[in-house]
Amino acid sequence: MGLEIKFLGPWEATANGEPVKVAGERRLGVLTRLALSAGQPVLNEELLTQVWSQSTATTADKQLHIVVSKLRSLLSPHQDDDIIATVSGGYQLNLACERIDAHLFTLLAHQARAARAQGEITRADALFQRALALWRGRALADLTASWAQVEAARLDEERLAVLEDHVDLRLSAGDHHAVVPVLTAHAEAHPLRERPRAQLMLALYRASRSSEALAVYQETRRTMVDELGIEPGTGLRRLQQAVLRRDPVLDLPSPAQRTTLTRPVIPAELPAGIRAFTARTAEVAWVRRALTDTVRGSPAIAAIHGAGGVGKSALAVHAAHAVAGDFADGVLHVDLRAATAGRRPLSPVEALRRLLRSLGLDATALPSTLDEAAARYRSLTSARNLLVILDDALDPGQVRPLIPAGPECAVIVTSRRIMAAPDLPSHLHLGGLGHAEAAALFARLADPGRLRAEPEAAHRIVRRCGGLPLALRIAAAHLAARPGRTLSRLADQLADPSRRLDALEHADLSMRDTIAVGLQHLPEEPAGHDAAHAFFLLGLQETPVHTAAALSALAGWPERRAEAALNQLLDVRLLEATGPGRYRMHDLIRLYAREQAARHMPEPAPTST
Question: Are 135 and 8 in contact (CB under 8 A)?
């Protein structure tokens, strides 16, 4: 949960649910003033004037510095970033607005009003309730300074407006009986506020209590004349006349005209987690941080890229399970099929239509064009708190229209290519598992008794799988399907380069298919042809590291052309970078490249020594 600050009621700070005690009136005042402007600088002069009041102490600047230093010491253990940053002429609290109840209240109220405008009445009702439930008493109740009283009055006015907006929503939904006691108490607490009085009159009228509705008007008029010397406003007077006439305009719309009160669709599309998921502790932590590192007005995005079979999807799903509870509006999952053998990647409009159906849009109402579908998707997600998993993406062009609009949304993207785009800023390169981690994964996948019986053979199997989780899973599935076969037999098959890829095929799982997809994603002629030819040539080499100079000599190309081909292979993860201008090919990919060279090159190039 991290650090949270609450002052819509008694002042409270917590870290992971545990209280954080902030002692001292000035420390409390400085932290509250910074929290009210979270993410924005507050000048020293403003802090001194407000928190130190009219003090002219020459040491005031020093006192402010001491207070900020104490607050940093108190809060920093609970926050990764510099929680209170020094900025030009002042300080800034670096805490997400969602962690401060007053800002969260404003955000939820905005989302509720947006949902109401879109006709999502039940969702708007839930958001209004969440916003109002944040209030535990009078705002800034622990602070008596004049600036705090001004802020408290502003916040309370916001609360009243949200409460009245919520009542309007409930009245439009036919909930007039239930809102009468709420409005009665509200009107009594604010006798000069005309809007709740008008709402109470309408609720009473619809509840067949017309005489009581008229009595509310008379009491309101008497109070306003006595205390302010003025008559009620035009709206309230017109409402009284409408009640007297029993004007049909006051009636609820007929069912055919009324906004449909449907429960909003809460998608729950997160695939089941992988029981044997192993290691990746740092990578899971990175994804979780990326999903909470929100920029004001933008959803959080975590993009994971790496070679086929390295476990990108498994990592995404595992991390998503850890945070799914933070997303009240559910989880969407789309397989974009960029690396699915035998199938073409989904187009953006196909993916959008799939997402829109998951969000409850009827199939007959699905837009047909990309622009229309993207606009509808933005509208449906603008006020939601969704986690969207875009698995197996092709490139930024496929992903960009699928990013939701809501600032409380988050996205996990997995792809072979790096999503290099300014609007997709957070990237994680996922490499293979180390030997110890790979051995631990294999131990969780395979029969423990068989592993204990042949530990050396198990070690050989793990080593030949080259740290790729997919290869380890295929090997374990291969053994499970053949309970009478020894681990040594599989290890021997994997040790033979001509049989290794055969051993790494089982049912619908195949390392060959996974590698082959990379070739399918190479660009059109001539760049794609060069890259494919380079791939075959490199498969015939035994050298562990490849360079543009070496490929240039091997292919008879200019070095620039060789470098372009290597970069194309790097883009589709058929090569990995090991340093500036240096590349390596995974052993399993090299075996596949060698097979393809035998098919596509009439005279294979000689093997280097």
Answer: yes
Query: Pairing mode, if any, of strands 509-510 and 427-429?
Result: unpaired
Separation CA 279–CA 169 (nearest Å): 49
Phi, psi of 400 (to 5 degrees): -55, -45
Residue 443, Cβ density class (10 Å: 0-12 exposed, 13-18 middle, ≥19 buried): middle
Dihedral (CA of 538, 540, 544, 549) sign: negative
What does the CA dihedral 548, 550, 551, 556 come to, rounded to 10 degrees?
110
pTM of the model: 0.63
> In this model, does residue 592 exceed pLDDT 90?
yes
Q: Given this model, what pLDDT does residue 296 score?
A: 52
pLDDT digits (tens, 9 = 90+) for 227-282: 889 999 988 999 999 999 998 888 886 543 344 444 567 899 999 888 789 999 99
Report whether pLDDT(294) > 70: no
* Cβ proximity of 203 and 252 under 8 Å: no
Rounded distance between C-alpha atoms, residue 207 and residue 177, angstroms: 6
Could you tell me how many residues make up the chain?
Answer: 609
Band of pLDDT at residue 364, cut at 50, 70 and 90: low
User: What is the chain's percent helix, strand, coil content, to nearest 5?
Assistant: 55, 10, 35
Which conformational region is residue 267 in: left (phi greater than 0), alpha (psi within -120 to 50 degrees), or beta?
A: beta
Q: How many CA atoms lie within 13 A of 357 on its CB side?
A: 10
Residue 90's DSSP bridge partners are 43, 87
Residue 354: phi and psi, rounded to 5, are -65, -45
CA atoms of 59 and 70, how far apart (whole Å): 17
H/E stretch holding 300 reads strand 300-305
Helix, strand, or coil here: 87? strand
Strand order in the sheet with 90-93: 42-43, 90-93, 84-87
- Cα distance between residue 359 and residue 136, in whole Å: 33
Positive/negative CA dihedral, 588, 539, 428, 327: negative
Residues 579-582: contacts with CB under 8 Å, at least 24 apart: 581/547, 581/548, 582/545, 582/546, 582/547
389 closest CA partner among 476, 455, 461, 327 = 327
- 19 phi and psi angles, rounded to 5 deg: -65, 145
Contact 441, 279 (CB under 8 A): yes
Question: Which is more confident, 183 or 342?
Answer: 183
Structure confidence at residue 25 (pLDDT):
86
Which segments of 383-477 are extended strands (E)?
A: 387-393, 410-415, 427-429
Task: Supply the mean pLDDT for the chain.
Answer: 88
Instruction: Decide: 414 and 320 in contact? Cβ < 8 Å.
Output: no
Q: For position 297, what pLDDT does the model report?
A: 63
